Amino acid sequence: MRQIDVGEVTPVIKELCMAANYYLGEDVINKIKEFLDKEESETAKEVLKILLENYTLAAQDKMPICQDTGIAMVFVELGQDVHLVGGDFYTAINEGVRQGYSEGYLRKSIVADPVINRVNTTDNTPAIIYTDIVPGDALKITVAPKGGGSENMSEVKMMKAADGLDGVMDFVVDRVKRSGGNPCPPIIVGVGLGGNFEQSALLAKRSLLRSLDEPNPDQMWQEVEETLLEKINDLGIGPQGFGGRTTALAVNVCAKPCHIASMPVAVNIQCHAARHKSATL
Asked: pTM value?
């Protein structure tokens, strides 16, 4: 049994919060360059060039890629042979978020009550934390800040089995169409299929963590992703909603078993600032 003091977690979370907001992943940057080379709209090309310049400046000056530095989502893979000591694990995570958002000059966007007492918590806590128990004696932490503009364009629908694959694809494409330029395209579309109401949403969210360089391990769903991407880019929304064929950079599908009476489908849209950084203790 390996012991990890939760005091080691706080500085890791702090650095991940800042790094995720300053440095965009190479997979996203390379994908934008790929679409830039085949984009036909001059306006769209100019927007993509500006985005690439913004990423360079953010990394160079250690400034946020976007002014909306997001709600802090923390995905934890906790090895079953790890014993956490020295305090409360989730408190240590939230302290790391507080330090990262304060010392990194990142916008604090969390209100204490969702409806009545919408007062800012002033430190971007509490984080949203998902914990999976996995084999081994390591602790992997991924921080994925998620902006409100793209999150607001997301949706869960309890579909009928009779709707089939065509119904699923129609729903996904329609969700993107109704979103228009609001989620700051080019977007990444996370699709969660199966499970139940809440698991489908989590599957869609988790699918956004998959690298854009990494194909779906299931050949069937890989083909569905490719078809959906083509349909979405045929909408003509384009970068930042100014038109063009680069509305989405990728569609990531994650599917799980579900009840015979259900077919849950969730769409979680991510803006071009697909921010997430990981560390392993």
From this structure: 0.95
pLDDT in tens, the chain (281 residues): 899 999 999 999 999 999 999 999 999 999 999 999 999 999 999 999 999 999 999 999 999 999 999 999 999 999 999 999 999 999 999 999 999 999 999 999 999 999 999 999 999 999 999 999 999 999 999 999 999 999 999 999 999 999 999 999 999 999 999 999 999 999 999 999 999 999 999 999 999 999 999 999 999 999 999 999 999 999 999 999 999 999 999 999 999 999 999 999 999 999 999 999 999 99
What is the DSSP secondary structure assignment for residue 111, as one 8-state letter?
B
Spell out the domain ranges in the chain. 2-20+65-146, 149-274
**Strand ranges for the chain from DSSP E:** 2-5, 71-79, 82-85, 128-134, 139-146, 155-159, 187-195, 248-258, 263-270, 277-280
**Sequence-separated (6 or more) residues with CB below 8 Å from residue 132:** 75, 76, 77, 78
**Token pair listed for 167:** 């119904």
Residue 112 in tokens: 């204490």
Contact 32, 238 (CB under 8 A): no
